[in-house]
Design brief:
With 186 residues, the protein is of the alpha+beta class. The chain has six helices and eight strands. It is globular.
Length: 186
């Protein structure tokens, strides 16, 4: 996997400890950002360092490729996007600081990740889930070309919600991506 990806507005860099202060300031400590996610808000910067160290270890093991999302005009890491590899599929995850929601940033980052992930020859499918009550995340996946497959009932229990929640499953197959490849080459 490349160490850096670029879009017209963004630079995606391999997650590094130098990104920790920005990520902590923009999202890892924010309960509203973490609401639907698998982790609790970070109490201090050391938790963000631990998270990044774990992501870097998984990169070395070729299990997960995590990138900091950095707007070129800002020069700060405001979010993270990752591809967790499982056999022939890549499960995508993303998170963005609340101040940057609804600007198309996450959709642009996911669009950049799709060809990078499909450059891995063993990946036949990209997939992602979102809570059925998180329409913003659903739009991110749709704007990146993923299709909603259906609802997985009581599938995901986040760290901040007491009961398992229904989620939408989205996916994009390699052959679908090849047919519509021009979408990612604009």
């Amino acid at each position: 996997m490349k160490l850096q990806l670029e879009t017209p507005r963004l630079r995606l860099e391999r997650l590094d400890l130098c990104h920790a202060p920005d990520l902590f300031a923009h999202y890892t400590q924010d309960p509203q950002v973490a609401h639907f996610l698998s982790w609790r808000p970070h109490a201090d910067l050391s938790e963000t360092h631990t998270f990044i160290a774990r992501q870097r270890q998984q990169w070395e093991e070729k299990r997960c490729y995590a990138f900091a999302i950095i707007p070129k005009d800002l020069g700060e890491a405001i979010g993270c996007i990752s591809a967790n590899l499982h056999s022939c599929r890549a499960h995508m995850g993303y998170v963005l600081g609340r101040a940057f929601w609804n600007r198309g940033i996450t959709s642009e980052a996911l669009q950049a990740m799709v060809p990078a992930v499909f450059a891995l020859p063993h990946i036949a499918r990209i997939e992602a889930i979102c809570d059925t009550e998180n329409p913003g995340s659903a739009r991110v996946m749709e704007h990146a070309g993923l299709q909603r497959e259906g609802v997985l009932r009581r599938y995901f229990k986040g760290a901040n919600i007491p009961e398992p929640r229904d989620v939408y499953m989205y996916s994009l197959l390699r052959e679908e991506w090849k047919k519509g490849k021009a979408l990612w080459l604009k």
